[in-house]
Amino acid sequence: MIVNRIGIKLTSSLWMTWPLFVVLLASISVALLIPHLNTNDWSFVEALSLVIIVILALIPAFHSWANKTFDLFEPVHMVAFTTIISFVLAPILLIGRDQIIIGGMNFRDKLLEAIALAGLALLGFYLGYFLVRKRSHDARSGSPSEQAITSPVPNEIHKWASLGLLFSFFIYLIWFELTSLPLSALNSLSETGYYGLAFSQAKTNYVFLFQIRTTWIALLLLAYPARGRKRNQKLMICLLWLAAALIFALSGSRGVLFELLIATAVYGYMIKGKRPKIVTTLSTGFILLIAMGSIVMLRSRNQIPFTPNALSREVQREITDSGAAAGMMALLAVFPDMNEFIHFQLFEELLVAPIPRTLWPEKPRLRGVQNIAEQFVPRSHAPPFFGPYYAAFGYIGAILSMAILGAASGWIYSLWKRNQTNIFRVVLLALWFALLWDLYHRGGLIWGLTKVSYAMGPILIIAWLAKRHNRKNQTNSTYATNGSTG
Fold it and tell me: Where are the alpha helices (DSSP H) in 136-253?
């Protein structure tokens, strides 16, 4: 009884510190942003719009805290966080420069509309997310910290995943051979490397083979025997994990590298039924932010001196000039004033893109949303997830596209919630949570579908194999039982 009272008192005291922690974090953030807060450059509506975005983004977190169901790995919190970074922090930094001039063009008059559209898109995400969560008959079989994988995963799953790793790596090597690129081109951090430039010099890109590397994340997680005692197998998968991380890092591929790191960390916590501490979460976010700018500097051909000031400028540039807000402002400047909404033309690439140019040498160049925008603006950065759908159908397209993303996120989280010890559902949620940052910041129909297909494909294939294997074993067991009783 005494222990229970102490536990309740401790839980209550920790709960009471959450509001204080949020206020403290907000105060520190404002203090760091004060140099950029020149009130002469702000309009009341702009400032109000940012406050509204922050309130909207924090609603799910405060609601779950109030109900004591907060789960850091719930996808809705990742999307809320990315919205704050891209459409609150980025605008503050952009307005601090007075005029928002990117590529020689002033986008200041489009900032308020971009912020408003981001808020509507977030509401659309909430609509899809919570409708699915409500309909999923969410079984509250315990808090996330009470559910852990305690039994070993069938060895067949690890075996199939390991074979998948070997097969996918072989395909990756074939891509190098077919493109006539030397393996040295993989190192973007060297003076002569960086296959981002070498892509254009290859005989053919075969991007559908190159993207096979995206499958490594799920395969590595499924191949690792977390609850087994097989040290040799664990060592082998750890070495393959390091090899994959090294390939991603040397090639300057921040997106897939961060997805590998985040998915692995989330998976590690989930199989133990735990969640990271606040200090760990904040420290990790800060390190990833620094790493984001560092990789860009290291892979740059401009020989940028690696100093704290240069790193700070690069991180700010990644959030502002190269961020989702800049990409959205570019689209708002083009559609529909300079180019009418493209409507269902957006989906034409679904018919053309899957056909390899080797089979169709005359395949037309896809006129994606960014390609169209770049005819009118000096430089079009990758827009947020809802950007292309705005270019096609206006505000309703942006809201509905985010509602679909929200529904998918809500379904994946509910799927895990109903069976938190299922290894496939654990890996699915860990990987989806890691993908959301990149999916939000790089809008594009074909890019998004390709990313999700390659990332999630191994999970679905191995789950199907496992289901067939179990069904076969059950059939054999039934025959054996009938034979013995006959």
Answer: 155-178, 195-198, 207-210, 216-223, 231-250
- The pLDDT mean for the chain works out to 82
Cβ within 8 Å of residue 221, ≥6 positions away: 263, 264, 267, 427, 430, 431
Contact 271/426 with Cβ under 8 angstroms? Answer: yes
**What is the rounded CA–CA span in Å between residue 468 and residue 12?**
48
Backbone angles phi, psi at 59, to 5 degrees: -55, -50
What size, in residues, is the chain?
A: 486
Left, alpha or beta for 450 (phi > 0: left; psi -120 to 50: alpha)?
Answer: alpha
pLDDT confidence of 324, banded at 50, 70, 90?
very high
Cα separation of 108 and 340, whole Å? 21
Nearest of 19, 114, 27 to residue 390 by alpha carbon? 114
CA distances from 220 to 147, 234, 248, 435, 463 (A): 22, 10, 14, 16, 15
* Number of Cα atoms under 13 Å in the Cβ half of residue 6: 3
Task: Kindly report the backbone phi and psi dihedral angles of residue 102, in degrees, each rounded to the nearest multiple of 5, phi listed first.
Answer: -125, 120
**Token match 């025959």: residue?**
479
Segment 435-486, tens digit of pLDDT: 999 999 988 888 899 999 999 999 999 999 988 888 877 666 555 555 555 5
C-alpha R_g of the chain: 24
Extract long-range pairs of 28-37: CB within 8 Å, 24+ residues apart: 33/89, 33/92, 33/93, 35/96, 36/92, 36/93, 36/95, 36/96, 37/92, 37/96
Please name the residue that has the structure tokens 């100093």: 307
Q: Inter-axis angle of helices 308-319 and 278-299, to 10 degrees?
A: 100
pLDDT number for residue 15: 43
Quote the pLDDT of residue 331: 95
What kind and span of H or E run contains 418?
A: helix 395-418
Query: Is 105 strand, coil or helix?
Result: strand
pLDDT class of 200 with cuts at 50, 70, 90? low
pTM score, whole prediction: 0.87
